């Protein structure tokens, strides 16, 4: 059963994810149809970053997953050597 703190943290993560998803959707899908002189454009980065930022985040995620798997495999190898 989740405690109150777990629920608050989960709700916070959900809220942050929803905000990021909404911002990115407006940035990538809706913004190209709005005139470039419109005031809303000052709240968004240039469109080149719409590809670069998710690419960088994805590469960092793959890096950390790879590092975690490597760490677990090396730790498992050390445990089996001690057992023998």
Automatic annotation (TrEMBL):
Q: Which Pfam families match?
A: DPM2 (PF07297)
Q: Which GO terms describe its cellular component?
A: dolichol-phosphate-mannose synthase complex; glycosylphosphatidylinositol-N-acetylglucosaminyltransferase (GPI-GnT) complex
Signal peptide annotation? none
Keywords, A to Z? Endoplasmic reticulum, Membrane, Transmembrane, Transmembrane helix
Annotated transmembrane regions: 12-34, 49-74
Q: How does it sit in the membrane?
A: Multi-pass membrane protein
Q: Where does this protein come from, organism-wise?
A: Octodon degus
Subcellular location, in the record's words? Endoplasmic reticulum membrane
| Entry protein name | Dolichol phosphate-mannose biosynthesis regulatory protein
Q: Which GO terms describe its molecular function?
A: enzyme activator activity
Share what the entry says about its subunit structure, partners included.
Answer: Component of the dolichol-phosphate mannose (DPM) synthase complex composed of DPM1, DPM2 and DPM3; in the complex interacts directly with DPM3. Component of the glycosylphosphatidylinositol-N-acetylglucosaminyltransferase (GPI-GnT) complex composed at least by PIGA, PIGC, PIGH, PIGP, PIGQ, PIGY and DPM2. Interacts with PIGA, PIGC and PIGQ.
State its role: Regulatory subunit of the dolichol-phosphate mannose (DPM) synthase complex; essential for the ER localization.
Protein family (similarity comment): Belongs to the DPM2 family.
What are the BP-aspect GO terms?
A: dolichol phosphate mannose biosynthetic process; GPI anchor biosynthetic process
InterPro entries, from UniProt? DPM2
Q: In which pathway does it act?
A: Protein modification; protein glycosylation
